[in-house]
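Can't paste images in this forum, so I'm doing it all in text. The chain is below; anyone willing to post the predicted C-alpha cells underneath?
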Amino acid sequence: MKENKVKFALYLPPEKKSELERRYREEGCRSITAFIEKVIDFYLGYLDANSAGAFLPKEIQSAIDGRLGMFEDRMAKLLCKLTVEMDMGMSAALDCIDLDADYLRKLRVNSVRNVKATNGLLTFEQKVRDYGDDNEGDDPWRD
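Text version of the structure:
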C-alpha cells in the first residue's frame, strides 16, 4: 500500500543532484525520494534539539541511554562487591594490627598522593617496589 504523498518541484544545482544520486545508493535507499525523506527527518530532529552540540537522532539517543543505564547498573554492582571485599580485608587486617589515628591520617595523605600521581592506576607490584625502596632496612620482618 502506497502512502499519501504530495508531489512538488525541487530545484537543485546539478552538482547537488548528482551528489543526491550518488548518496542515496550509498545509504541503501530505494529511491532519491526515500533518501530525501531521511535527510529531512534527520534535519528536523536537529532543529528540534535546538543545538548542534546536543543533537543525536532519537533512536541513537535511546540506544545510548539504554546501554549507559545497563553499564551504570553493572558498575554499581561491581563497586558494591568491591566495597564488601575491601571491608573484609580491612577488618581482617585490623584484627591483627593495632593502629593509632595519627598513623591512619599519614597513611591517608600518602595514599591520596599516590593515587593522584598515578591517576588511579596503582598496581600491587608497583606498591611493593616503592615500599621496598622507601623502607630498605627499616622493617625487622624483611629478609
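Residues 100-137 form one domain. DSSP finds five helices and no strands in the chain.
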